[in-house]
Amino acid sequence: MVTAVAFGVADVDDAEVSLHLLRFAHETLPQRVHFAAGQAADAVAEEVRRLEGSRVMAIATGAARAEPVLAGVRVAVVHTDVVRHVPVEVAEHARGVAREYDVDVLVSVGGGSTTGLAKAVALTTGLPIVSVPTTYAGSEATDVWGLTEGGRKSTGVDRRVLPHAVVYDATLMLGLPVATSVASGLNALAHCVDAMWGPRADPIDRALALEGIRALDSGLRHVVTDPTELAGREQSLYGAYLSAVAFASAGSGLHHKICHVLGGMFDLPHAETHAVVLPHVLALNAPAVPDLDARMAAAFGAPTALAGLQRLRGDVDAPRSLRDLGLAEPDLMTAVGPILDAAPPSNPVPVTAVAIEALLHAAYEGKDPA
Ligand code: NAD
Question: pLDDT by residue (tens digit) across 147-156?
Answer without folding.
Answer: 988 767 888 9
